[in-house]
Amino acid sequence: MKRRDFIGIAGAGSAILFGSLFFSDLFGNKSTKPEINPDFNPDVEIDLTAYQREINIFSGKPTKVWSYTASLKKGPSNTIQTINNSYLGPIFRFKKGDKVRVIFYNSIPQETIVHWHGLHINELADGHPRFVIKEGEKFVYEFEVKNRAGTYWFHTHPHGKTGPQVYRGLAGLLIVNDEEEKALDLPNGEFDIPLVIQDRTFDRNNQLVYLSGGMMERMSGFLGEQILVNGHPDLKLDIENSVYRLRILNGSNSRIYKLAWEDGSPLVVIGTDGGLLDYPMEKEYVMLGPAERLDVWVDFSKYRVGDEITLKSLSFLGGNIMGRGGMMGMMGRGRRRNISDGEEIEILKFKIVENRKGEIKTLPDKLLNLNFNSVDEAININNPRRFVFEMNYMRPTINGRTFQMTKVAKDEIVKLNTVEVWELLNGSGGRGRMGGSMMQMPHPVHIHGLQFQVLERTSSTSGWDTIKDGFIDNGWKDTVLLMPGMRVKVLLKFEDYKGLFLYHCHNLEHEDLGMMRNYLIED
Ligand code: C2O
Ligand code: CU
Ligand code: CU
Predict the structure, then answer these.
(1) Does residue 362 lie within any of the structural domains?
(2) CATH number of the domain that residue 502 is part of
(3) If pLDDT is split at 50, 70 and 90, which confidence band does 329 have?
(4) Is the beta carbon of 117 within 6 A of some atom in ligand 1?
(5) Whose CA is nearest to atom 1 of ligand 1?
């Protein structure tokens, strides 16, 4: 079946599935684009452009990519940091409380929009696909940074094209700092290393290859043939035998990592999606799904100059009976063999090249208060809102539905200033429709507009033993990895902003196929 046919069938399917449900269409097709508000006084002002360029990732031919580039109009000089020779966008550093204006220019030959992943932000600034702009147009973002210190990110979000656009390079990190975190005196400057892990496939002319494997590959999600960290293949970082903070983002379209140190040292986790934990934790390994972040403390002082330390992804059972990536691998589309889902791989190496000059920092016993909401506040504690993520007649769906640009169903409307429990399920436990249980695969579930807390995680996953110790459920999160058969309860508070926000699977191929819905926060 060709892609066009597949999309056609998906459309027909929707009509049948949606027939009996009540929907409200909130905005029609037209949306007014925000203008510069003269009363908004920004602390930071940035011009951001998405554009086409070429970079030298390998020797020989340069690679055609799409990138973000930014220039600072107002604000501290360290607000924008660029990663050398990388398709990745700049790293933005904001302070909690900053008022930020970003003027975004589209200079790629496709519709696009920027989403600030993880930020608690007003509706107009959230980068919903209904706000896409065409080549040559601009979009004005004005928002206040309300999140606690942590590692967030930004990426493109047009409906149906997020996968290919992120893949070509349209993503970057956004780091929020605040006074509370600063007081902990964690490693900073060159000792604070952002690491964006992605997988890509290149052809023999060094050009990116995306979804050449047809419908099956699209349905399970893109898996690349090689790992890039910060846009570099086989990255080896020269460091001192000192203490570092690693801010790790899984920026891959669909690949899941089981991160661990090769020498068996525990991973010392200090933070998750929404910033620092209350106490550091030691983990043998950590599962990191697409869009999830991990803040790691690492003390390299036991190593000597010349030593190399490898961060790996250990093998695990992905829980997909088709063995994602396995079949594609034999087809030899690119320069290398494909890496299957859950296959052991090297992520990057650290090489000790210098003895430390300063003192060794000590890991604080206590990090920061999480100030979690209490479950007792939830208005639906005994009756959680339920969302089932599953394949449905060969389409990835949420409660049987796919994305509709401006619509919400009745059960997707919540009230401002309330706390709710949501129950997220991967598969409906055998009662699924055709193509459900047969095609179970992981779904990294992301909710826009807020950070939530995980209350409970249960699983009937086969292969559970190979992943069960890798989840960190005691920090603020905006994305939670739902392995097949898994059920996760989360606690959310809808505050400050009403409006239409998204929740979706962050396997970008699933998202593009419509595993995304709106939810509406009403007054
Ligand atoms: Cu990372 Cu809807 O986004
Ligand atoms: Cu997001
Ligand atoms: Cu999914």
Answers:
(1) no
(2) 2.60.40.420
(3) very low
(4) yes
(5) 117
CA-to-CA distance for 236 and 349, rounded, in angstroms? Answer: 5
Write the residue with the smallest CA distance to atom 3 of ligand 1: 117
Q: Is the pLDDT of residue 6 over 50?
A: no
* Residues 207 and 326 grouped into a single domain: yes
Helices (H) and strands (E) in the chain, counts: 6, 34
Residues 342 and 379 occupy one common structural domain = no
State if residue 395 touches ligand 1 by the CB under 6 angstroms criterion. Answer: no
**Are both 341 and 208 inside the same structural domain?**
yes
How does pLDDT run across 72-96, given as a tens digit for each residue?
A: 999 999 999 999 889 999 999 999 9
Domain range for 453 is 375-522
Q: Is 39 within the bounds of a domain?
A: yes
Task: State the pLDDT at residue 351.
Answer: 98
Q: Identify the three-state secondary structure at position 217.
A: helix
Kindly state whether residues 204 and 337 are assigned to the same domain. yes
pLDDT of 326 over the 80 cut: no
Residue found under tokens 């403390």: 297
> Based on the domain organization, do 66 and 194 belong to the same domain?
no
CB 368 within 8 A of CB 278: yes
Burial of 203 (0-12, 13-18, 19+ CB in 10 A): middle
Q: Are residues 162 and 309 in the same domain?
A: no
Nearest bound ligand to CA 439?
Answer: 3
Amino acid 288: pLDDT: 98
User: How many Å lie between the centroid of ligand 3 and the Cα of residue 105?
Assistant: 30
Does residue 448 have its Cβ closer than 6 Å to ligand 1?
Answer: yes
For 99-108, what is the mean pLDDT?
Answer: 98
pLDDT at 23: 54
Which atom of ligand 1 approaches the CA of 118 most closely? Answer: 1
b/e sequence 261-279, b meaning 16+ C-beta within 10 Å: beeeeebbbbbbbbbbbee
Whole-number percent of the chain with pLDDT over 90: 80
* Atom in ligand 1 nearest the alpha carbon of residue 291: 1
Take residue 404 and report the two structure tokens written for it. 């509709």
Mean per-residue pLDDT, 395-420 = 97
Residue 280 inside a domain? The answer is yes
Give the model's confidence band at 121: pLDDT under 50 very low, under 70 low, under 90 confident, else very high: very high
**What one-letter code names the amino acid at 294?**
L
Query: 342 and 203 in one domain?
Result: yes
The reply to whether 365 falls in a domain is no
Which atom from ligand 1 is nearest to the alpha carbon of 155? 1
pLDDT at 511: 98
Q: Is the CB of 155 under 6 A from ligand 1?
A: yes
Regarding whether 197 and 322 lie in a shared domain, the answer is yes
Q: What is the pLDDT of residues 373-390, one digit of tens each?
A: 999 999 999 999 999 999
